[in-house]
Amino acid sequence: MGNICEINQRNVGLIDAIEQGDIVLAFDLIKKHFPILAAQDLIPNGIPPPNNRVEVAELQDILFQLKCQRFIEIIRTSSSTIDAIRYAQTHLKPTNNKSKEQVKEVTALIAYADPRQSQSSHLLGQQRREQLASQPNVIYQYKLQLKKLLDNIH
């Protein structure tokens, strides 16, 4: 699993990727270093899932927020709305009322020739990235708890 210093470095790399808007890299780092979050069922390779449904919901919410941010980054950097539409159709499937509201808010950006003039323009700012970048600390804390648990078993 790696020592705590390695886990911290992974967390910093993930935060940096999100703050720079490189959500593809962020997902790659999550898949590589935080498979618990990346896995649909949150039980990969026999690793126990979070202790309660609140933790599971929180981890799934982080992943969904990152998917929304990926959509935002596509809008920000692409001149083609088709890429954004395809991404939304594939990855932005709401599972609850909160995620439905998130999808409505981020997909509203596509309706404008200049999304910076939309009511959702705040989503395009660096502050949004920084706010989202603070979320992996939840993953980091869970990973530390899991490491301590596994260390106690051995």
Automatic annotation (TrEMBL):
List, alphabetically, the InterPro entries matched: CTLH/CRA, CTLH_C, Ubq-SigPath_Reg
Q: Where is the CTLH domain?
A: 14-82
Q: Name one Pfam family in it.
A: CTLH
Stated name of the protein: CTLH domain-containing protein
